[in-house]
Amino acid sequence: MTTREERSFCRFCIALCGIKVALDGDTVTSVKGDTDHPGSRGYTCAKGRSLGRWHHHPNRILEPAHRRGTDFERVSWEGILAEVGDAVKRSIELHGPDSVGIYNGTAASLDGAGKWAAERLIHALGSRSRYSAISVDNPCKPLVSLLMSGNAGLVPVIDDRRCTFTMFVGCNPVVSHGHLNGLPDPVVRLREYSRGERELWVVDSRETESSRIATKSLCPRPGTDFAIFAYLVRELLAHGGADEEYLSRHAWPIDIEALREVLDEWTVEQASDVTGCVADDLQDLLKSVRRHGRVSVQTGTGTTMAATANLTEWLIWVLHIVTGSYDVEGGMWFNPGVLRQTHVDARPNFDLPTTSPGPKSRPTSRLWGEEFPCSAMVDEIESGNLKVLVVFGGNPLSAFPDARRTRNALAKLDALVVVDVVENEMTELATHVLPSKGQLERADLPFFYDQFSLDFSTQFTPAVTKPIGAAQSMWWIALRIAEESGVSMLPGGLSSSSSDIDVLRHLASKSTVPFDDLQKDRYFAESPVFGWVREAVLADGRWRLVPSEFRMQLARWRDVVPQPGPLLTSRRRLRHLNSQHPPMTNIEDDDEIVLIHPDLATANGIEEGDSVIISTDDGSVAFRAMFTDRIHRDAVSVTHGVRNANVSELTSATRVDELTGMVVQTALPVAIRRR
C-alpha cells in the first residue's frame, strides 16, 4: 500500500476547517489541521480529527436496504429506487403532491450539491412539504433580517481583525464553534478578542469554556437576555453613546423616537430585576460599549431557541445600528458569499412570509423560504396529509419536539426513506435506507455556507478516497428518485451519468471566482466587503428599527418570561454534533448528566449523584445530578441531541413562537425531583 496525504476541509460544521487526511491505500489513518489553510490556520477540533473513525465506522451503511417485517434486506440500487419511485407516484396520485415531503438535516445542508438537488426534487414533484433544520433552532435570524433590512438572507459576521469589542450571547464557540458563528480556531481567536485594548464579553446562563477566556461574563436567568440589550439601547439613546451621524443617514427619526418610547422602562434596575444580573455589572457593560463605540455581537442557540428569541435578536440588531456598527469596519459586515453573491440584484422587501396556505393541519403557519415549520410535520402525518418522507442527512427524532409522538408518527408513514452515511435512530425506523457518500468520498463546495466565513472566501475539495460499499452522491440519489417518480429535475446538460465535479461546476456558475480557478487553487479569500447592504439592500439606505411585530412582542414580554423556578437549558459537547456525530470515544460520557446549582438542589431535596426526573407537561427524562455553583440558580443544563436522555421528549410541537412557528426549547419551565 502507498501512504499519501490529501488536503480537504471538514464539513461537520460551518467552520469548514482545513484538514490533511493521511491514507494508507483506501484506509484513513489520521486527520489533522492544515497549517496552510488561511481560515483555520492549522486548527481542527476533536470531531474533525475523528473523521477517519467516522469514515470507517462499524455502522456505515454499505448497501441499499428495504424493510421486510422487522428485518432489513439488501437490495440493488435499481430495485430500491424503483420501490421509492412507486411509493412517491402512488402517494401523489391518491393524495396529491403535498403528501410527499423532504427533510434536509445538518449533514445535507453541508453537502453543497446534495442540498441543492433535494430541493430541486421536491419542487419537481410539485410538493410544498419541505422541511429543514432552519425552523428548529434559528428562524429568528432570517425573520429579524427580513423585517429590519428587507432581505432575509443577510448574515452579519464579526470584523475579526478590527473589532475591539466582541460579545457572544447564548453560544460557546470553544465547544460549538461552527453553529452559525463560523469561528475556526476558537480558543486562539477568543484570546485575541480579549487581549490588550480589546474586550470579550460572554453572556450565558452558566460559566462555559468560552466565558473562562472572556474579559468579563454575565450570567442572566435563562430567556432574559433581551433585557440586557433593551437597557443598553435605552441608555445609549437617552444619555449618550449612540452614533448620531450614522443614525441620521441610516435610520428614520420616527423610528428613533419610537425606540425611546418602547424602551423607556428598561432602566438598569428593570434589567437587573428581570435578568438577575448585578446592576454594577450591567453598568460596566454599558461603559465598555461607550468606550469602544462599535460592537460585534453574535448569538447562538442558547438564545435562539427561547420564547424571547425574536426580542433578543432584534435588540442586538438595534444595538449594532445605534452604535453605527453594521456594514462598517470594526463592527459587523455582511458576507454576500462568493458562490451565491447575495448582493447581486438585492432588493428590499419587508413582507412577512405568507400566512396562507400553510400545511393543511396548520393553514395559518408561516412559510419560511418556501418551507413548512418542522413543528407541523407530525400534525401533517397524523392528519393523513403527509404519506411519504425522504430524510436527507438528518434525525428528526433528535431534533424535533415531543420525540415519542414524533417516533409514533414516523412509523405510520407509507414510506420513510432515509439517506445517510451511518446508521442512527432514523435508519432503524425507515422503510428504505439509502447509503450516501461520506464527506471524504465526494468533491464539494460550501455552497450554502461560504457566507458564514470570517473572510470573503470560499474553497473546493476533491474526493480524497473512493466510496465505501455502494454509497452514492446525495445529488445522484435525489435525481434518481425524481426519475423513478416520473419527473425531471436537473437543468440541461446534467444527468445521472454526470460527475460530482459536473454538478459543482454548474452550482458555481455565478461565483465571483471561476470554478476552474477554485479547482486549481482550492481556496479563495479576500478581506471583508463593506457598504453594499446600505447601498444596495436598504430602502433609501435606512434600517427599519421598530417593526410592529417586535414592538408588540416586547409589550407582552411578561407573557413569555417564565415565573421563578427551574428552567431547561441545553449544552453542546466537544466530541459530539447532534445525531450526525455521536462521540467516537468514551472521554465524554455525560449524556445523562444534568448540571444544577447547589441551591436549586437543596430546595428540591437532591444530593449530588442522585438520579433525578426532569419533567414538563409533555414528558419526563431521567438524569444524574451534578452540582456546580457556576450556573444561574434557575438553570437546569442538559446535553442537546443525544439518544440516551433526549430532551426533545420534554418539548411540545404546540408550544411555538407565533411569528416563526419555532418550538420553545430553551428557558422552558420544568419540574425537578429526586427519582
Descriptive tags:
single chain, 675 residues, alpha/beta, Phosphorylase Kinase, domain 1, Rossmann fold, Dimethylsulfoxide Reductase, domain 2, seven-stranded mixed sheet, 26 helices, 25 strands, 17% strand
Tell me the number of strands. Answer: 25
Average predicted local confidence, pLDDT: 91
Strand composition percent:
15-25%
CATH T-level fold name of the largest domain: Dimethylsulfoxide Reductase, domain 2
Q: Major sheet, described briefly?
A: 7 strands, mixed
What topology, given as strand order, has the largest sheet? 5-4-16-15-14-6-7
CATH fourth-tier homologous superfamily of the largest domain? Dimethylsulfoxide Reductase, domain 2
Which architecture of the largest domain does the CATH hierarchy give at level 2?
3-Layer(aba) Sandwich
For this structure, the quaternary state is: single chain
Count of discrete domains: 4
Shape: globular
User: For this structure, what is the CATH class of the largest domain?
Assistant: Alpha Beta
**Span between N and C termini?**
56 Å
| Helix content range | 25-40%
Question: So how many helices?
Answer: 26
- SS-based class: alpha/beta
